[in-house]
Amino acid sequence: MKRRVVITGIGLITPGGSSPEDVWQTLLHGQSVAQSITSFDATPYSTSQAGIIEESEPFQPFSRRLLKRMDRFCCLAMAAAHRAIEDSGIEFQHREAAGVYIGNMYGGWGVTDPSLRNLLTQGYREVSPYVASAWFPTAPQGQISIHWGLKGQSKTIIADTASSALAIGYAARAIEEGRADVMLAGGAEAPITPYTYTFCSNSGRLNPAGYRVFDPEGRGFLVGEGAVLLVLEELEAARRRQAHVYAEIAGWATGYLPRAENLWSDEGKKLASLMTQALRQAELEPDEIGYLGLDAQGVQAADLAEAQAVERVFPGEQPLATSCKPTLTHLLGAGAAAEIATALLSMQHDLIPPISAHPVSAAHMRLVSEEARPAQVRNALIHARGADGVQSAMVLRRMAE
């Protein structure tokens, strides 16, 4: 019999706030937090708007010496891990059974970008000695493990915008199978550098008109920096220490749709099959789901495929659906973790935040827009997709008081 996995801590460092309370208030207002990039000239790019974290308070628990050695995406991950551990109240008594799974897309270009420029213009002596380790996508995994002395399961997952969904799913699986007792899991991203922003802009996934989901003119999203880490525990261990439990990870499935099949033209069949698998694992029927956390890419074809997947799984009355991304911006490798955290906060507050403060509608979907909707959510289904074909669906179950 597999062990049950619950979430006992949330760490959020986002453009919309650096605590669950602040982020929740931002989500309730539904206004995009995107602002003009000022750290470099972004006018040549497809858009100069992004989600930016301006406060330095989240980094205060760490020494300047340590922060200097890390890229910004790693600093964000460390700060989110600190908040999640603090929120959970966990003490790592058996560090061999505690680990970290974390996802990102781009790694650390905040250090690498200027160092490469210095190398070309001023010579090798002007290159930061920390570049070799700071840029690496696995840096947060290593720094978190070192800082908190975690000696158990440890992985970095890169799966485009589905990265953190897979990190959380695989972390839960490690606990289910007895390979871990406690896991930190989520994602981190810091794409607001000239080099990384070039990737984003040239991909054609940024929308000059803003983040417009389920819109016939939808051409993409707005990116943001941030990190979201969750504390996952085995249920009985959490109960023994009387921890607050946000929800149980009741089901999870992931799969791959080869790009050769034209990613968004399968009419949502692959995503629908994964949603069905996750429901089956959770031993739930579709009509028992009260909340849908959407991928909401903001690309017309992608949003249509998502709507078709939802219609396949929920042919009758559909659950209320929302997404935090139009408000917080798309945190890329941390975006799916932000959606999961939003679902957890909705369960806490018996409210579903709007996908936008402006009217949004989609055929065959019950989108929450303009204002929050009261709802006692017992079960939530959150899905994520990456542009290279990785897809994921997760079911969260609210625990009885």
UniProtKB/TrEMBL annotation:
Originating species: Thermosporothrix hazakensis
One function term, GO molecular function aspect: 3-oxoacyl-[acyl-carrier-protein] synthase activity
SMART domains: PKS_KS
Keywords: Acyltransferase, Transferase
Family to which this protein belongs: Belongs to the thiolase-like superfamily. Beta-ketoacyl-ACP synthases family.
GO biological process, one term: fatty acid biosynthetic process
Protein name stated in the entry: 3-oxoacyl-[acyl-carrier-protein] synthase II
Recorded superkingdom: Bacteria
Pfam family, one: ketoacyl-synt
UniProt xrefs under SUPFAM superfamilies: Thiolase-like (SSF53901)
Residue ranges occupied by any Ketosynthase family 3 (KS3) domain in the UniProt entry: 2-398
